[in-house]
Amino acid sequence: MSNGQLPPVTGGVVSAAEVQQFLQSSGMTIEQLMLALVAEAEKLARPPISNFFVGAVSQGSSGSLYFGANYEFVGQALSFTVHGEQAATVNAISHGETGMTRLAVSAAPCGYCRQFLYELTTASTLQILLPNTAPTLLTALIPDAFGPGDLGVTAALMSPQAHGITLSVDDPVVQAALKAANASYAPYTFDYSGVALKTHDGAIFTGSVAENAAFNPSMSPLEAAVVNLVIVGGKSYTDIVDAVLVEAGGSKASQAAATRAVLAAITPVKLRIYQAHTPHKEEKHHA
Known about the structure:
Layout: E1 13-14, H1 16-26, H2 30-42, E2 55-60, E3 65-69, H3 84-94, E4 100-105, H4 111-117, E5 127-129, E6 136-137, H5 138-141, H6 172-182, E7 193-199, E8 204-208, H7 221-232, E9 240-248, H8 256-264, E10 271-276, E11 284-286
């Protein structure tokens, strides 16, 4: 870190080994370290509407730490705002984590984020870390919660997903979006979808839809891709040169219109949309 007092962060991540090494040498606790890193995570926020910067730091089950920040899109509905807690979760998912043990934020998560976090595999044990406050279980912040079990879903967000949808297009950006769609979490609609953003240097950043039992806190694949573009890749919106959405054919909750609209708020690049092959449905492409 620039202040020389915190461990180095690469791509919005502090590895488990680096975390342990730092804790041993500094004498800090994991809770103190995570809260100290929140201010660094805030620097990755892009809130042009509110100008209110939010940072969050999650700890995956592996012990690694992941940055998150908030993102707003001028000209689009406020419902497309990405919350810092969501971004820290997406960052962890993109690095293969299947659960989170702790989440540090500068202030108590809003109700929207509490609902989003309640979808996680580790919701019952997730600790929320706040300044000058003892660690608090998420479940204490969302009593009488409504979650996956209420809709008969036993899987949870961050559990490994593999849906087997296919698309016969020999294009690396399309295939990256397809891979993201196959890894998406959509147990309520089964409308799997993924977005891939390619930058001028050839790098590709993806995001998968993450549905929620309460529907509204669901996270779109474009929002997840933006998190990975900025936090993991260190890129800006102006670096985007190609964008692809792949979703299951005949989706009841299509991502096409919203993805096209929100993308237009950050880049002039036109969205390419593909419907992936599912049983009894034909593969389609829309320019």
